[in-house]
């Protein structure tokens, strides 16, 4: 009887392991879409040269909204983080400024959100491009964050 139980335990473990190996497929259309947005889109043109806007830069505004969205993360409760909840938190005192609204308008205007690539992904992508713009497109303007 113990040999049968041992066999069933091993068989169940191996079955679960082989199923987990077969679930990932490449090319994965979800990852391909994200890669396409990161490497082939023209989002960098919006922050190239760090264009100014409202006594700051577009890059700074994009980085600021990403920071304010993710800074609500609570490790203990597992809530918050970069989840695009900033869209509903613009009335909080720490989220003031026209740059927050303008950044969300920028991100909505790109039309990148899909059922599998949400606003949180677009905000994160905006933060990546905001930082890369400083390295790829040198400019006398620097990211100045009024946090």
Automatic annotation (TrEMBL):
Any one GO BP annotation for this protein: response to oxidative stress
Gene3D superfamilies: 1.10.520.10
GO molecular function ontology, one term from the record: heme binding
SUPFAM superfamilies: Heme-dependent peroxidases
Signal peptide start-end: 1-20
Transmembrane segments: 116-137
Keywords: Membrane, Signal, Transmembrane, Transmembrane helix
Protein name: Peroxidase
Source organism of this protein record: Gymnopus androsaceus JB14
Highest classification ranks of the organism: Eukaryota, Fungi, Dikarya, Basidiomycota, Agaricomycotina
């Amino acid at each position: 009887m113990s040999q049968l139980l041992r066999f069933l335990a091993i068989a169940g473990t191996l079955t679960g392991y082989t199923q987990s190996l077969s679930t990932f497929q490449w090319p994965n259309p979800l990852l391909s879409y994200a890669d396409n947005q990161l490497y082939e889109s023209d989002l960098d043109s919006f922050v190239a040269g760090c264009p100014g806007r409202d006594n700051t830069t577009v890059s700074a505004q994009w980085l600021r909204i990403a920071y304010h969205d993710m800074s609500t993360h609570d490790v203990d409760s597992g809530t918050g983080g970069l989840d695009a909840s900033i869209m509903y938190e613009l009335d909080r005192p720490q989220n003031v400024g026209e740059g927050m609204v303008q950044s969300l308008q920028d991100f909505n205007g790109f039309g990148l959100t899909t059922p599998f690539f949400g606003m949180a992904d677009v905000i994160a992508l905006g933060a990546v491009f905001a930082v890369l713009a400083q390295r790829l497109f040198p400019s006398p303007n620097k990211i100045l964050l009024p946090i």
